[in-house]
Amino acid sequence: MSLARWLEYKIDEDPRKPGRRQEVFDLKAIEKAIGAPITYVYSNQIQPGATAGMHYHKEHQVAVWMREGELEMTLEDVR
Asked: 12 pLDDT exceeds 50?
């Protein structure tokens, strides 16, 4: 589920963290596309084989859009 397939974005890479990048989306464009305001956004993708601290990522991608209410989320990486 890559948001980049259907929305324009810019890539923000951190030279201090090779292999890590952020895809920056225009929330106003997304709100226009879905016809409603967005109040919370969480999106994260880690490439297979990437490491963070002491663990290894097989694959990890999450995107959550909320218009109202609260969200409690627990993420677990597959080893």
From this structure: yes
Report the 3 state secondary structure along 15-30: CCCCCCEEEEECHHHH
The pLDDT of residue 1: 42
**Phi, psi torsion values for 67, nearest 5 degrees:** -100, -30
> Residue 45 above 50 pLDDT?
yes
SS3 string of 19-79?
CCEEEEECHHHHHHHHCCCCCEEEEEEECCCCEECCEECCCEEEEEEECCCCCCCCCCCCC
Question: Strand 55-56 vs strand 51-52: parallel, antiparallel, or unpaired?
Answer: antiparallel
The pLDDT tens digits of the residues spanning 52-73 come to: 555 555 555 555 555 566 665 5
